[in-house]
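Consider the tokenized backbone below.
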């Protein structure tokens, strides 16, 4: 990337003292009743596009015309160690914070930097009716809106309407993500959440996508102030959404995992049975024609997700 394509992470130290009693958590509310929305950034310290979006909202003191919005910078300790020249540096301090969002982990006796922060953030998550979690990714620059496996997740994705590629995906073997925490992952609850992968780590375009998604998320609930001037319309396609349903999650089970096929994110592999990878003696092949690899991993470590495999559905509504 050229210098003008590289995202320079903002100094967010001025947002340490919020109005909630917890560092880097801010709340804005209106007198008119409405839902409680929560927008989170820096679940991983090296995913600074979300920090740019929240920094812009706070700098302009954006207050919704109704309801309440909570804005939270999450893994501040990891963010202190990021390096745009080494995109994977600063992802976390002790463990992946986006694998901790279950009662057993949050209420257990284990200790880590990320668990301590997640426990401090949890009360705000419990109060939220709808949540948007901002991320970026290692491979691929096409933004993805991850809606989970629930019908309400797909409904919220349609309501937000951006980005254009929606992925209905199950969780990780390594632990529960914030998007799937508690009532968010239960169909019977009215609460819902989305995770957006805004683009590549430290790409300037990912920050534009993050802010555009935030604006559309607020607007979906009639909670975007009309006088907000910080919006920068993304040049990414905001046309009809397409839905990719994840059918297989390939988890690495040995120390000898290796891709044998050049898996390019979202590039359909034409033929069923194509050999994708070997995991020790196990062969991983495409289960059907036009199989779409989603977010193939660069770090091929036992216990982590190597790649998700999905099929395209015409639109979220079509399913």
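A designed sequence for it:
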């Amino acid at each position: 990337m050229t210098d003008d394509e590289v995202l320079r992470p903002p100094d967010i130290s001025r947002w340490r003292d919020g109005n909630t009693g917890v560092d880097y958590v801010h709340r804005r509310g209106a007198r008119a009743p409405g839902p409680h929305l929560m927008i989170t950034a820096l679940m991983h310290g090296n995913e600074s596009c979300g920090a740019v979006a929240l920094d812009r909202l706070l700098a302009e003191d954006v207050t919704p015309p109704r309801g309440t919005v909570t804005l939270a910078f999450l893994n501040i300790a990891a963010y202190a160690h990021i390096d745009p020249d080494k995109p994977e540096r600063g992802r976390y301090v002790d463990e992946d914070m986006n694998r901790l969002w279950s009662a057993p982990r949050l209420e257990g006796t284990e200790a880590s930097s990320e668990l301590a922060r997640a426990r401090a953030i949890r009360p705000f998550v419990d109060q939220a009716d709808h949540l948007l979690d901002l991320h970026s990714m290692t491979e691929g620059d096409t933004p993805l809106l991850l809606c989970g496996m629930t019908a309400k997740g797909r409904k919220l994705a349609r309501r937000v309407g951006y980005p254009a590629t929606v992925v209905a995906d199950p969780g990780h073997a390594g632990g529960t993500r914030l998007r799937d925490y508690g009532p968010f992952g239960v169909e019977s609850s009215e609460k819902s959440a989305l995770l957006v992968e805004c683009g590549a780590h430290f790409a300037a375009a990912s920050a534009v996508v993050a802010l555009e998604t935030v604006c559309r998320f607020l607007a979906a609930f009639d909670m975007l102030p009309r006088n907000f001037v910080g919006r920068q319309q993304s040049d990414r396609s905001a046309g009809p959404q397409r839905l990719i349903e994840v059918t297989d999650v390939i988890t690495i089970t040995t120390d000898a995992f290796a891709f044998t096929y050049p898996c390019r994110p979202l590039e359909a592999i034409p033929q069923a049975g194509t050999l994708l990878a070997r995991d020790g003696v196990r062969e991983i092949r495409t289960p059907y024609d036009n199989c779409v690899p989603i977010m193939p991993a660069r770090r091929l470590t036992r216990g982590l997700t190597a790649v998700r495999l999905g099929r395209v559905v015409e639109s979220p509504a079509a399913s």
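The longest helix spans residues 204-220.
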